[in-house]
Design brief:
alpha+beta, 2 domains, elongated, 8 helices, two-stranded antiparallel ribbon, Arc Repressor Mutant, subunit A, three-stranded antiparallel β-sheet
């Protein structure tokens, strides 16, 4: 359960969250029976105008629920091909792909130096073997005789999905 302060710092992000604030408002006004959840009782302690603002959020573009899954679908199932899902919480992948996305492309040497600097900062032991295992996210190409890297279409999709959810 989110703390009261976390609710105060955000607008309703889903239909179910909007309804929760509506129930808290109704409880505060005495329109609901006493048999309600602790969450509604806690929310009803908010000022009535704050509850009303959240409860009156338009539902037009709100999702039914906030998606807090541990995986993200980056490509849907199409014909005989399965959908592609990736882990939502992968800081090493997100840092490396974010580095490449920020620059547009980089040399393989720059990527190696970036990985080494991240290892020094965090104390982890990521190596270029990560690059080999996750090659579907990155395309290699030659520019002026130097091997460069850029995001593949899948890598771009992963970056778009993970930055939206952060």
């Amino acid at each position: 359960m989110k703390s009261l302060n976390e609710f105060l710092n955000e607008a309703s992000k889903s239909k179910s969250q909007r309804r929760l604030f509506g129930m808290a408002l109704a409880y505060k006004r005495g329109e609901l029976e006493d048999d309600v959840s602790d969450e509604i009782i806690e929310l009803s302690k908010l000022p009535e105008d704050k509850l009303k603002d959240y409860a009156e959020t338009k539902e037009t573009n709100l999702p039914e629920k906030i998606d807090e899954r541990k995986t993200l679908q980056v490509k849907r199932k199409y014909g005989q091909y399965d959908s592609i899902k990736v882990g939502a919480n992968a800081p090493v992948r997100n840092n490396i792909l974010g580095f490449i996305a920020e620059k547009g492309h980089c040399t393989k040497q720059e990527l190696k130096e970036f990985i080494q600097s991240k290892n020094e900062d965090s104390g982890s032991r990521t190596s270029m073997s990560w690059f080999n295992k996750n090659s579907s996210y990155i395309k290699e190409f030659k520019k002026d005789g130097v091997i460069c890297c850029k995001l593949s279409n899948l890598g771009q999709r992963v970056i778009n999905k993970t930055t939206i959810n952060e």
